[in-house]
Amino acid sequence: MSQPNMVPVEMNNNIGDGDNNNNGNNTTTTNNDMNGGIVLGDEEIDSANTSENQEDGSDHQDPARPSKRKRYHRHTKHQIQEMENFFKECPHPDDTQRKELSRQLGLDHHQIKFWFQNKRTQIKNHQERHENSQLRAENDRLRAENHQCRASIAKAICHRCGGKTAIGEMSFEEHHLLLENTKLAEEIRQLSLVMPKCTGKPVMNYTLTPPVPARPSEEIASNRREVYGSIGNLPGSALRVKDVDKPLIIELAELAMEELMAMARLDEPLWNIGANGTSLALNLNEYTRIVRNGLGPILNGLRTEASKATSIAFMNHLDIVQSLMDVNLWSNMFARMVARAMSHDAILTGVQGNFDGAFHLMTAEYQVLSPVVSTRECYFVRYCKQQGDGLWAVVDVSIDHLFPNLELKCRRRPSGCLIQQIENGFCKVTWVEHVEADDREVHPLYKSLISSGQALSAERWVETLERQCERLAYIMTPNVPSIEPDGQIMITNNAKQSLLKIAERMTRSFLTGVATSNGDIWFRLSGNAGSTVRAMTRKSLNDPGRPVGVILYASTSFWLPVPPKTVFDFLRDANNRTNWDVITTGGEDLQLMSQIGNGRDSRNCVSLLRTPNTSQKKMMMIQETSTDPTASFVIYAPLDVTLTENVLMGGDPGNVSLLPMGFAILPDGTAQPGREGGSLVSAAFQVLAEKDPSARLSFSSLATTENLILKTAHKIRAYFSQQTV
């Protein structure tokens, strides 16, 4: 059996030999275990008895023992257990409790007092040792992470200019000049490849050595992933949030959800009729008064855009939630406003089987469809929450303010939508769009549209959602409505659905070649600095939906003094095509083979056109016309006759190669109640410049494409100039 534990007791004249014999042999111990009641250096001494003896003058000592020798009284297991149990209930007993305990256990109340003191000291020391160990481990981790961050930042490369991004190594002016220099160097490089062959003269009379050679977009994206991924910042395909940051982001998203719910449900005076008389604009003074400001004040240089709109969409509410939470579905559904999007991390995945409680970290580039307007790049967390039976909410809120090294030009305050299920497969969507953006460098053509807040307003989001829901519904309907003039051909329902799928792919491809996304390298086709024509190239190798070779994308924007509806009706009418089409018709009118509806408005349709039978040039063309109160589109593409006929007979529509062309028509932002404004038109062409993917772009391809797009724009402007005289 193990020996009972002991505590020291001061020898004094009040303890006789009989007491000593009953306690067994005396031994000295330095046991730190409080079950023994001893902590090294703190002996439980009956100092009170000692003091009393000294005061009484009783200094008699046993001659067989040295003076002031201490005896150790062993507590029994029962005494220790009782004190342990009492300690759990009351670690700090008062004098009355100690005396009662000493009476029950047969111990002096001073022994009880010192045992409790030692027990508290032991627990405190144990806790401090544990906390110190944790702090040392955390300190080592942070020190290693700090060294890694410093090394990564020192090697970081700016994704726009190629220069270093380390703080203090480059002034703002130097960075701006390097950025501009890199753009100019890329334009010179593009022209220098082709000019000597055609003219025999160099592009310039001097040699320009750019500080950093231009790099393809894939290398730029790779560098961004390497830099941001290594320091835990943005953006990158493998971006992950540190565990220590997740609670902060979740808390921010939950506050954003509360704000979204309040803003979506409140009306006046928080929301007032906007300048255009249709959309709702935010009353900033009222917002500041009633809404909790989770992101702080407006940043210097940024301007607030806030709007609210409501619409009825023909889609199941859960399907809309899925389309918003799946980044690929979201970017496809809203391709008119989203140039690029990526989901980096699912902080929480939500309830199994749906997205209730899901938090997704995302990046996106929001675009206004024009080559002269830069995209808005945002980094945000998207949070989905079921608010009730058939009621869901999805909110975005920027987290880029947590990363001070980012160049912040757009910030999303709580923005998103409430999705309410209603009967017959419809749902009511209330959208709130609240952003802060830097628009100081916007092209004069688009100044009014951007400053009015209509370019990316809530109304545009809900109208686009409603229009896309219509398109999907018509593609999946078992009986697609269509018109075949004069009964020239009979098209089966499967063939109609195939043509609608081709049109869907054509539209998505067209929208990728209008605005200048950060992921692509765009350059001016003309040496004139004021030219609005921009171009880029992409290589096509194994895409069955595109021809093999080098594809040249060209885009330009211009203003017309008539409302968007007038421009849309003019461009969609096949009878007017010879007035502006300088590429596909060759001066001949095209005949309508079939017109397939894909919306409640009869102007929303897909048309299959062809040249007359008497024409020597056999050609087919697919055209989609789409309009809503915020934007209109006329998009078309020539088709291979053999492949198209195969699709009409039930063939695979994915094998049809497309090079889309067309127009995006937006209001100019000057319309007011009772007065119509003008139109902003962006024309975009895709041309197979070289059939060999490894070939260099020729000067003739550049010059021809520029001439065609400028000539098209000139003919359209000339037509409406005559109409408005």
Give a verbal description of the structure.
Residues 118-152 form a coiled coil. It is found in: Nucleus. This is Homeobox domain-containing protein. It comes from Brassica cretica. There is one protein chain. The chain is of the alpha+beta class. It is built from 18 helices and 22 strands. Strands 3, 4, 5, 6, 7, 8, 9, 10, 11 and 12 form a 10-stranded antiparallel beta sheet that branches. A 10-stranded antiparallel beta sheet has the order 13-17-18-19-20-21-22-16-15-14, with helices on both faces. A two-stranded antiparallel ribbon has the order 1-2. 37% of the residues are buried. The model is unreliable at 1-64 and 201-238 (pLDDT under 50).
Main sheet attributes: strand count, strand direction, barrel closure: 10 strands, antiparallel
Fraction of residues in helix:
25-40%
Low-confidence stretches: 1-64, 201-238
- Report, as a whole number of angstroms, the end-to-end distance: 116 Å
What's the tally of helices? 18
**How many β-strand stretches?**
22
Radius of gyration from CA coordinates: 39 Å
Q: Mean pLDDT, nearest integer?
A: 78
- Write down the oligomeric state: single chain
- Which structural class matches the secondary elements? alpha+beta
Shape: elongated
**Beta strand %:** 15-25%
Region (Disordered): 1-77
Biased composition (Low complexity): 11-37
Family: Belongs to the HD-ZIP homeobox family. Class IV subfamily.
Coiled coil: 118-152
How do the strands and helices of this protein lay out in sequence?
Elements: E1 6-10, H1 17-22, H2 47-56, E2 70-74, H3 77-89, H4 95-105, H5 109-155, H6 172-192, H7 195-199, H8 217-231, H9 246-265, E3 271-273, E4 280-282, H10 284-290, E5 303-313, H11 317-325, H12 327-333, E6 338-349, E7 358-366, E8 376-388, E9 391-398, E10 410-412, E11 415-421, E12 427-437, H13 447-452, H14 458-476, E13 482-483, H15 493-511, E14 523-524, E15 534-540, E16 549-560, H16 564-572, E17 591-597, E18 605-610, E19 620-628, E20 631-639, H17 641-648, E21 661-667, E22 679-690, H18 699-724
Antiparallel strand pairs: 1-2, 3-4, 4-5, 5-12, 6-7, 7-8, 8-9, 9-11, 10-12, 11-12, 13-17, 14-15, 15-16, 16-22, 17-18, 18-19, 19-20, 20-21, 21-22
Helix pairs in contact: 4-5, 11-12
